[in-house]
């Protein structure tokens, strides 16, 4: 049927929806061309464009242990990577670290937030995504599991390059741990309200000043100004020697300028929070 | 555990149960339009930007071009075809008509599903809340103004 053929966008792909983490890890180990499918709000579009062509999609949506939000007695948040942005925004537990839900509410639109996941956002390691700089600034830890066991990776060591993370072939991100804290901020210059970021910055003042800049390199750039003073923050960003990309939205010089501006704004917001 | 390249799925759409064989690569929008002949949901962009394919999947608004058909096995879906009664438009559809909230109409099924989802969660949305609820739906005709008017009218 002509309409049917016309409607094919994705290359042929095999699919499995495991019910346990163990099954998912076995599938990823068994099929070298397998990719984990989280919310699909990036991967399915990338597959339409033929920019990725996995042989097997391992759909993680049927694995209960990858979902959920737990708040520990000390204020630590443990986030299942398959938790959606909408769930994080609505969660009273997640409000223990308010910036998490606040930033999730700035991602794309209702439909994408309903289906997109925190794990998908970070594992995509797209330099323009919101959550990589945020989770670096707040000092999150990522639990990565494989058939051989699990390990913990600090957020600043998780992002290795554009579309590359410390979760290697056959591995899965299985937990994101966010320490307690409230003095956080996030600022961006996006393409339209809640659109793709041209430059973004997350700041955390919970013991020291941590600023993580997004969109200015392959991975978030962590800057630690001596104080939260606006000039100190801008100076630290200047000294970071950023080499951002130039594209149709902004030149490298303009991105360097915006990086200072959004860093100062994020730190200012962090100072007022908590 | 086995992987499959196609599977028979069962899905309820607007209260009717359907069973179909689907390939793993098939998108939900194509299941709806080409296999079930429910052509009310539109394909505007194929890239997840325009929202014309928005449907409500197990109570949640999604873009059906960013969900695989094989993923909705056992689910319940509402599309624009399910909004009206036998003879009567839904209050929201009637408000779209009364307020000229469409010109070409291509985006309308998605707008209606997004607004339906909004009004269920928030029966009296503010202008700001309506704007945020429609972020994922693009209209090139109306400038959105009459869509706002219609949603406000339907919200009482």
Description:
The complex is a heterodimer of chains A (274) and B (156). Chain A has eleven helices and 14 strands. Chain A is of the alpha+beta class and 274 residues long. By secondary structure, chain B is α+β, with helices and mostly antiparallel strands. The longest helix of chain B has 14 residues, at 108-121. Chain B has a five-stranded mixed beta sheet, with helices on both faces. Chain B contains five helices and five strands. Chain B folds into two domains: 6-82, Beta-grasp domain (Ubiquitin-like (UB roll)); 91-154, DNA polymerase, domain 1.
Summarize the structure.
The complex is a heterodimer of chains A (274) and B (156). Chain A has 274 residues and is of the alpha+beta class. In chain A, 32% of the residues lie in helices and 23% in strands.
CATH topology category name of the largest domain in chain B: Ubiquitin-like (UB roll)
Name of the CATH homologous superfamily of the largest domain in chain B = Beta-grasp domain
Largest interface: A-B, 39 and 37 residues
The CATH architecture classification of the largest domain in chain A is 2-Layer Sandwich
What is the fold's blueprint, element by element?
The complex is a heterodimer of chains A (274) and B (156).
Chain A: H1 2-6, E1 14-16, H2 21-30, E2 34-37, H3 43-48, E3 56-59, E4 69-71, E5 77-79, H4 85-90, H5 99-104, H6 110-115, H7 118-124, H8 131-137, E6 141-146, E7 149-154, H9 155-158, E8 159-161, E9 164-165, E10 172-178, E11 184-190, E12 197-204, E13 210-214, E14 221-223, H10 230-239, H11 252-272
Parallel strand pairs in A: 1-3, 2-3
Antiparallel strand pairs in A: 4-5, 5-10, 6-7, 6-10, 8-9, 11-12, 12-13, 13-14
Helix pairs in contact in A: 10-11
Chain B: E1 6-13, E2 16-23, H1 28-35, E3 54-57, E4 60-63, E5 76-78, H2 91-98, H3 108-121, H4 127-133, H5 145-154
């Amino acid at each position: 049927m002509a309409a049917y053929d016309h409607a094919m966008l994705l290359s042929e792909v095999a699919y499995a929806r495991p019910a346990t983490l163990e099954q998912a890890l076995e599938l990823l180990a068994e099929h070298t061309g397998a990719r984990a499918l989280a919310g699909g709000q990036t991967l399915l579009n990338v597959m339409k464009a033929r920019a990725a062509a996995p042989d097997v999609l391992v759909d993680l949506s049927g694995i209960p242990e990858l979902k959920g939000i737990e708040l520990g007695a000390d204020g630590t948040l443990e986030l299942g990577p398959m938790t959606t942005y909408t769930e994080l925004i609505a969660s009273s537990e997640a409000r223990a670290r308010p910036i998490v839900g606040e930033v999730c509410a700035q991602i794309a639109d209702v439909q994408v937030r309903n289906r997109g996941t925190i794990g998908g956002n970070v594992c995509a390691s797209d330099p323009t995504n919101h959550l990589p700089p945020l989770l670096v600034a707040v000092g999150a830890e990522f639990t990565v599991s494989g058939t051989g066991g699990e390990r913990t990776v600090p957020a600043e060591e998780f992002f290795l390059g554009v579309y590359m993370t410390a979760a290697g072939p056959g591995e899965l991100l299985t937990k994101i741990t966010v320490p307690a804290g409230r003095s956080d901020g996030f600022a961006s210059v996006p393409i339209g309200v809640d659109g793709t970021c041209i430059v973004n910055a997350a700041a955390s003042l919970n013991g020291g000043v941590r600023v993580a800049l997004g969109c200015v390199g392959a991975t978030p750039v962590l800057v630690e100004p001596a104080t939260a003073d606006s000039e100190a923050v801008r100076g630290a960003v200047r000294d970071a020697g950023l080499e951002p990309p130039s594209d149709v939205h902004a030149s490298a010089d303009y991105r360097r300028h915006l990086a200072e501006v959004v860093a100062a704004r994020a730190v200012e917001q962090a100072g007022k929070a908590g | 555990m086995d992987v499959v390249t196609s599977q028979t799925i069962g899905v309820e759409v607007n209260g009717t149960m359907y069973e179909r064989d689907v390939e793993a690569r098939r998108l939900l929008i194509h299941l709806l339009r080409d296999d079930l002949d429910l052509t009310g949901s539109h394909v505007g962009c194929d890239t997840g930007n325009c929202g014309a394919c928005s449907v409500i999947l197990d109570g949640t608004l999604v873009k059906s071009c960013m969900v695989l058909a094989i993923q909705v096995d056992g689910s319940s879906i509402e599309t624009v075809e399910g909004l009206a009664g036998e003879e009567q438009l839904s209050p929201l559809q009637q408000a779209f008509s009364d307020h000229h909230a469409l010109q070409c109409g291509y985006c309308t099924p998605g707008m209606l599903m997004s607004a339906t989802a909004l009004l269920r969660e928030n029966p009296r949305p503010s202008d700001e809340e309506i704007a945020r609820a429609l972020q994922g739906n693009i209209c090139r005709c109306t400038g959105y103004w009459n869509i706002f008017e219609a949603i406000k009218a339907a919200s009482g």
